[in-house]
């Protein structure tokens, strides 16, 4: 049986990557933005639990309640929808 580890938050950019491998939103902002995002993911990798990342948004969530916060997945201070993040082992 799988166990769920952690109570983290990620930004919309990371949520799209985790959910379906989509990086088009990040690539839209240009190569420097994309490179900083990738560097942030690499930097936070050792600080996050092992396992497969999963995102959870409450049913009916419109994704339009953006706020400023530190994304646990890419280590960036972002203004984004705050998505719940956990890891399955």
Uncertain runs with pLDDT below 50, 5 residues or more? none
Q: What is the helix content?
A: 25-40%
The total count of strands amounts to: 5
**Which whole number gives the mean pLDDT?**
88
Number of domains: 1
Distance between the termini: 9 Å
Strands of the widest sheet, in order across it, are 1-5-2
Main pleated sheet: 3 strands, antiparallel
- What is the number of helices? 3
Which secondary-structure class do the elements indicate?
alpha+beta
> Over the alpha carbons, how many angstroms does the gyration radius reach?
13 Å
* Assembly classification: single chain
Give the H and E element order: EHHHEEEE
Strand content: 25-35%
Q: Estimate the global geometry from the Cα principal axes.
A: globular
Q: How would you sum up this structure, described in words?
A:
This protein is of the alpha+beta class and 89 residues long. It has one domain. The protein has three helices and five strands. The protein has helices at 12-20, 24-28, 31-44, and strands at 4-10, 52-56, 67-70, 77-80, 83-88. The strands form two sheets. Strands 1-5-2 form a three-stranded antiparallel beta sheet. Strand 3 and strand 4 (77-80) form a beta hairpin. The longest helix is centred in the middle third of the chain and has 14 residues, at 31-44. It is globular. The N and C termini lie close together (9 Å). The model has no long low-confidence stretch (mean pLDDT 88).
